Amino acid sequence: MKGRAGRALLIILPVLLLAGGGGGFFLLRVKGSHKGKKPAVVTQQLELKDMVVNLADADHPRYITISLTLSIEGAESQDALAEKEAAIRDAVLMVISSHRYRDLLSPEGKDALKEELAKAVDGALDKGMTVSEVLFTNFVME
Predict the structure, then answer these.
(1) I want to staple 129 with a disulfide (CB 3.0 to 4.6 A). Which of 7, 62, 74, 85 is the partner?
(2) Which pLDDT score is estimated for 137?
(3) Radius of gyration of the chain (CA)
(4) Nearest-angstrom CA–CA distance, 51 and 63
(5) Beta pairing partners, 49
């Protein structure tokens, strides 16, 4: 019995050692591959509901009722965004009120407005915060 068990042990032991060493190498390699990567960026969403804004049309008074959702990276909490909400609303109102009705009818006009809004809101945010996405949740012009 000792002869068979001894031979089996001589065969199994190196296999187990190799398997354990390979597994350890793999785990260390995977763990090491995360070094130098940036930590996940915190993103908060801010909803701006039902803003009524006069448009820049001189020939006929026009206005827009708009609701937005802004995705803001780097904002640690909703409270941090709440402190900036008045400045954000002001930036949004100033950008929208500079546009005319016909400029906002096309999809291209709406996309350009999103880009302008993102830049303007970025200027109202604290350092380290940035707008990653502007979504229109309501967009009615009259």
Answers:
(1) 74
(2) 97
(3) 29
(4) 10
(5) none
**Which amino acid does the sequence have at 96?**
I
The amino acid occupying position 132 is: S
Cα separation, 31 vs 18, whole angstroms: 20
Does residue 65 contact residue 50 with C-beta atoms inside 8 Å? yes
Q: Which residues of 59-82 are buried (b: 16+ CB within 10 A; e: fewer)?
A: eeebbbebebebbbebbeeeebbe
State the CB neighbour count (10 A cutoff) for residue 118: 18
Rounded to two decimals, what is the model's pTM? 0.72
Burial of 124 (0-12, 13-18, 19+ CB in 10 A): middle
Residue 32 tokens, joined: 């090491």
Compute the C-alpha angle 94/95/97, nearest 5°.
65
pLDDT tops 80 at residue 28: no
Q: Which two tokens stand for residue 77?
A: 């909490």
